[in-house]
Amino acid sequence: MEYLKLLGIVIIVLGFAFKWDTVAVVVIAALATGLLAGMDIPTLLTTLGQSFVQNRVVSLFFLTLPMIGLVESHGLKEVAVNGIQKMKSLTASRILNLYLIVRELGGVFGISLSGQVQFVRPLITPMVTAAAEVKRPLTEKDLDEIKGRSAAVDNFGNFFAQNLFVASGGVLLIVSTMTSLKHPVTGTQIVLYTIPVAVVTLVTVALYNIWFDRRFNDTKEGN
Amino acid sequence: MAQFGNILLTVMYCLIGFLLAIAGIESIKAKDNPAHIGTGLFWLLLAVIFAFGTVIPYAVTGGIIVVIGILALFKQIQVGKIAPVDPKYAATAAKRIGGWVFFPSVVLAIVSIAIAQVKSLGPQAGQVGIGIGAAVSLIVAILLTHAPAKMIYQDSQRMVRSVGSAGILPQLLATLGAVFTAAGVGTLTAKLIANVFPAGNHLLGVILYCVAMAVFTIIMGNAFAAFAVITAAIGIPFVVAQGANPAVVAAIGMTAGYCGTLLTPMAANFNSLPVALLEMHDKMGVIKQQAPIAVFLLLVQIVLMYVLAF
Lengths: 223, 310
Prior knowledge:
- Chain B: InterPro entries: DUF979.
- Chain B: Keywords: Membrane, Transmembrane, Transmembrane helix.
- The complex is a heterodimer.
- Chain A is mainly α.
- Chain A contains ten helices and no strands.
- Chain A folds into two domains: 2-54, no CATH class; 60-216, no CATH class.
- The mean pLDDT of chain A is 83.
- Chain B is built from 15 helices and no strands.
């Protein structure tokens, strides 16, 4: 029964859908997949351990936490709030759109940064929150949506502009994959045909953010 | 120099181990958390893996991950109550420091980007950049705030502990992806789809490829992994072999996959990490903000590929 090893995917989909403990779900899915694919237990544990150690790089952001903690306890948010309150014309959408442009320009020049850690948490979210707070008091739900939107804008800018750089990981992967599939393409071609998508993303997300401002223009408090 | 980059990376992992160990010790001491032993154990076990990852046999590390999974399953990993930032202290510091409080963040960005450009550091340049950026920006922050050692310690343990087990999720998912690959899950699913849909119609082929890229990225959490599998299984037979321009198909196929990345909790680095980092209540909050744009862009890309490729 070859198909049994697809159970790992089922576990992941159900686990995330039913909001079970995510760490437990992922570990169980990995064990189930390995066992059903016929790995013996020592092989499975070795695969698990080796992959985890080789992927430590994903958790590098922990190193930035002491600095972020320190500036947070020394008034990062307070300063952002003061600053935005002085610049009344800077609405939430203008901050978000400015950041979107910065992120897409970074993509064009091949500057990849971990925006969520370096910008969204310490800078963009406090600024957008402060800009929205000028209009009316914010509810817990508002705060969550502002955080979600700030993180989303980082992802939009990051994803759809990164292939505009000819030596980016995505472009290199496409070129090598297509070559091995016997339909060779060049990096420059890939960049060229990524431009329409990058432009559509820029325009659509900018309008989406301007729409986001509307909810804070209500003078009365939200639910 | 590339070897120098490797050594720096190892030092950085040891430092992360040190940070996690601090979080572990402080979690055990937080007796008001009913799961304080389990939570402390979780951080200490991780600390060991980060600091000594390449020294310990991989099978033992695998066993440790199973133990962490069991702790999580029995709800023994909990953030608990953590003393928040003192608002009075923050307000006073804000007056004294002013706009310079952003300076360490700017230093982190500039230094990590600058170091990432040092090609001689090898393929790890980007990662070494984040580490050096973090170290330099922390020194700048200490000079700026004149914070005593005790405060640096307190803020570090507060930050790590509040990220909680969500902080380790991206790495666990990357691990799961590797297990999927080792078990041949990707090739099997691709084969299944190729059996169900017949080739021939241009528009249907384009829709099938773009949607499959998005759906497989949703399942695997990684558009790069989906691209290699789905382009071979669907993109070539159903679209390129029907006379489409391969560059258009490949370029837009990849970004169609990114629409899937925007929709899936499996892409934890992008969608779950911010939830932890920003301390959001809604675990799907980032994905909810992304969903309308992701679906719209997927439709746009289907049209673009159909128009430009044929």
